[in-house]
């Protein structure tokens, strides 16, 4: 794999100048074309032997391309905000929009490379990390984020020689880091780690390029050439989906609109106060201050999502939650993968994020209204299960409520909204239009319940024709979940990608 | 001022129920109207005596309004990211979009209230804090962010009684904080601080409401009523501009397109390398790791902004800067005050933010193309001076470059772009169109140079007909500024608003 790079090839000076002139024009041409089309984000993952000159190569790329549209995304030690979220959060959070280019230092390969560098690496762990990476990159590719990966390499002798040369000159000595010096000693392990990482994550839609790095011109030309190859490619049309997350799907919960019993106002109010008190209490527990909660509300129009949410928030300190009403994504959000806007709203520890409609829009409204192609919404089930598994593995509880309302009860509520002074604002033409697609929505929600009710994040189907019973059921579920957080074990069997605490790698 | 509130008025239960029913309907009506119109953001500033039940009142507001569109913005101790930016950054950063409501705990009144609570408050300091607040709120009002301020108040006796009552009941004892207990002892000072703050910052466009808080119903009704009054108001049309920042304007720098001398290629390259080396060196200084740099580039199309930026970034570690190309704001950005998108991009310590075009768009393109009314772009000069003063007071250096190119040289460059294979992408129809408005742009830029070349952030006018000389001048200015950072004193005479490090207040 590295045999060519380890011959430390040297490009002739004159030839390099000629190649450079040509490469620069084409890099700019394709960069501007991409900007105009705004169909794809390009992410360049930077990895390789420490001290191979990764930084210089990327600096150069910034000079050859228009740097106003190239973003360097450098990730080091986790900061506090990052440490409270799933490992992938930091990458999602800084994803450039379509048309632009990001260069990633300290990427999601950190955990895999760290394990692969150990004296006795754990094969199963490495395979798991690789699967997580492969699923992530396949999802990105399908969503218009192209990933190319550069491995900067040279022979051990050339590495030694380069480090010594830099150290000798006081003007360049600062360029040599401790990691570079360590790389000499651990060269064979780094090399093996590279081999493992490349072998396990090489995909047609996310290729690796090995960049011979002993010679400055050679490294520059190869880097620019790899990026140019990536830029020249049209958006990937056939993504090889990677092994999906081995999810334990539960049987779809039973749907019933009418609750088994009705309940009087007095009993309702007493019970409401009871569950609100338990929620308030549980929120103040020590255990919860180190985890977080995500609540998802889905259901037909007028199923009672808003009312249920208000009964929960009444029990909470206003500083402890955020409510995210979800409607069609705006242009800003559409320039990223559809899960992006939800990743950005994940709560820190001790907080609750409440989603009034959610990422399930992709398999509900987008499916029914044909805003997404069948291939797109069909792959979403796996993507969503994977997303929620990452939340759970991070200690974030995910509670999903499907509020089941009957067609007759919905009609009654629409009519009530038409006449009530403070409900009329809630009713729009869309609501009536959606009602005509009742069966299509029913089918879509049924598939959703079947494909995404998982062991780690099950759906709660709430009979919603009676608002009081529905609210009590939901409050009970929230209270119980919060109270169980103490002994709560991440339910998913696949460990999260190890959070990286090392320096840039 | 507090005499009514200190009678601790009590609203009759039945009357309260009746008022509540009416208030809730109208709150919701106006909330939805505001959402539909999306013309104004409402910010509710929460202040008052600790232990007056501010939290409960706001909780209730969340129940009475649709909480999906009400955001609680609670600010406590500064975190690391906030500590590196000007004091107002945290508030800018979390500003809700138009149509929505934000409730602010721990607001920009913290510093003023803290000073006013001291045994011997510094009158001049308080006046300065009040001026900063007043300028900020006037600017917000002019930009469609309505601010209303609630002061929760009760008599000292009622405060004592309320605290003791809560403490006695184990179910409510947790509601009493240390600040609440301290408030008993320091009641008179808190009261005086409130008086000072209210007197100095009461404005027609940013009113204070005093909320009698001894009785739960009374507090609830008054809170809802104050918010309703605010919601009922149409967007403010006549804002009383507050005392502008006392800025030392420098004489507008002289504009000359042709540099005094031309320079050969060899000399240019040697000098370029020299200044790049000095910049690289200065960036690694200890002093710079505790400050940051903002570079602003303005100038006619083809003046050479991009080329100059590339010569700077070539000297920098790619991880140490961000380039922000600025064009027309998108819908997401238009739903906030125009400075918002720039506040969000302020660099942390040790970093450089490079703006290729900037907030000066308001007084250049928006003025010339009539995208802003005369009143709007005229007030922008003060707003911009104020913004930059806050940056400087925070230790962020602001370097502004106006690249002056002649009309003839611009034409030559346009033609060159038409024919060059890797420049043709840079030329658009807009460029030709803007050229027809040469004189209008010239007038606008002249006013800009006269009104915003300040002692704390002067404009550098760069003769740009010769690209080499222009780049060298710019690099020299950047290097000199970075090197002088060591002894750099915040140049502006008005101190920044004191950064708040206390708990929620």
TrEMBL record, chains A, B:
- Which residue numbers delimit the Polyphosphate kinase-2-related domain? 12-233, 264-486
Q: Per its record, what are the GO molecular function terms?
A: polyphosphate:AMP phosphotransferase activity
SUPFAM superfamilies per record: P-loop containing nucleoside triphosphate hydrolases
- Region Disordered, as annotated, extends over 483-505
Transmembrane feature ranges:
none
Q: Which GO terms describe its biological process?
A: polyphosphate metabolic process
- Write down the InterPro entries for this protein, in alphabetical order: P-loop_NTPase, PolyP_AMP_Tfrase, PPK2-related
Q: Which UniProt keywords apply?
A: Transferase
Query: Which Pfam families does this entry report, sorted A to Z?
Result: PPK2
Source organism's superkingdom? Bacteria
PANTHER family for this protein: POLYPHOSPHATE:AMP PHOSPHOTRANSFERASE (PTHR34383:SF3), POLYPHOSPHATE:AMP PHOSPHOTRANSFERASE-RELATED (PTHR34383)
Protein name, please?
Answer: Polyphosphate:AMP phosphotransferase
Please tell me the species this chain comes from.
Paracandidimonas soli
Ranked from the top, the taxonomy reads:
Bacteria, Pseudomonadati, Pseudomonadota, Betaproteobacteria, Burkholderiales
């Amino acid at each position: 794999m590295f045999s060519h790079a380890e011959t430390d090839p040297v490009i002739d000076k004159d030839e390099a100048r000629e190649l450079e002139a040509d490469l620069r024009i084409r890099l700019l041409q394709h960069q501007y074309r991409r900007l105009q089309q705004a169909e794809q984000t390009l992410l360049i993952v930077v990895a390789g032997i420490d001290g191979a000159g990764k930084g210089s190569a990327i600096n150069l790329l910034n000079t050859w391309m228009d740097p106003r549209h190239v973003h360097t995304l450098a990730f080091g030690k986790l900061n506090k905000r990052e440490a409270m979220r799933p490992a992938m959060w930091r990458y999602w959070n800084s994803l450039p929009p379509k048309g632009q280019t990001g260069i990633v230092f300290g990427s999601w390969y950190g955990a895999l490379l760290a394990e692969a560098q150990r004296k006795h690496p754990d094969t199963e762990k490495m395979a798991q990390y690789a699967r997580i990476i492969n699923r992530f990159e396949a999802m990105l590719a399908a969503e218009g984020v192209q990933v190319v990966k550069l491995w900067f390499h040279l022979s051990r002798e050339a590495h030694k020689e380069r480090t010594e040369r830099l150290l000798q000159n006081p003007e360049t000595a600062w360029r040599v880091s401790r990691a570079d010096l360590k790389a000499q000693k651990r060269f064979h392990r780094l090399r093996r780690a590279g081999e493992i990482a490349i072998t396990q994550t090489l995909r047609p839609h996310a290729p690796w390029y090995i960049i011979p790095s002993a010679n400055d011109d050679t490294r520059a030309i190869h880097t620019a050439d790899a990026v140019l190859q990536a830029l020249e490619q049209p958006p990937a049309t056939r993504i090889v989906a990677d092994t999906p997350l081995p999810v334990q799907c539960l049987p779809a919960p039973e749907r019933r609109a009418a609750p088994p019993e009705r309940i009087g106002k007095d009993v309702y109010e007493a019970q409401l106060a009871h569950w609100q008190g338990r929620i308030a209490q549980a929120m103040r527990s020590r255990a919860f201050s180190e985890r977080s909660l995500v609540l998802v509300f889905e259901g037909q129009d007028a199923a009672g999502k808003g009312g249920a949410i208000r009964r929960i928030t009444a029990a909470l300190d206003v500083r402890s939650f955020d409510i995210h009403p979800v409607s069609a994504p705006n242009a800003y959000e559409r320039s990223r993968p559809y899960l992006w806007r939800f990743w950005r709203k994940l709560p820190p520890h001790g907080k609750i994020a409440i989603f009034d409609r959610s990422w399930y829009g992709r398999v509900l409204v987008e499916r029914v209204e044909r805003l997404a192609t069948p291939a797109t919404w069909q792959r979403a089930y796996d993507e969503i299960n994977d997303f929620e598994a990452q939340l759970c593995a991070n200690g974030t509880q995910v509670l999903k409520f499907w509020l089941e309302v009957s067609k007759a009860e919905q009609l009654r509520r629409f009519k009530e909204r038409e006449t009530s002074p403070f409900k009329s604002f809630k009713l729009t033409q869309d609501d009536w239009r959606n009602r005509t697609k009742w069966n299509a929505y029913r089918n879509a929600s049924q598939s959703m319940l079947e494909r995404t009710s998982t062991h780690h994040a099950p759906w709660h189907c709430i009979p919603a024709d009676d608002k009081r019973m529905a609210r009590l059921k939901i409050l009970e579920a929230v209270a119980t979940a919060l109270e169980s957080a103490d002994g709560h074990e991440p339910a998913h069997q696949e460990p999260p990608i190890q959070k990286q605490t090392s320096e840039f790698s």
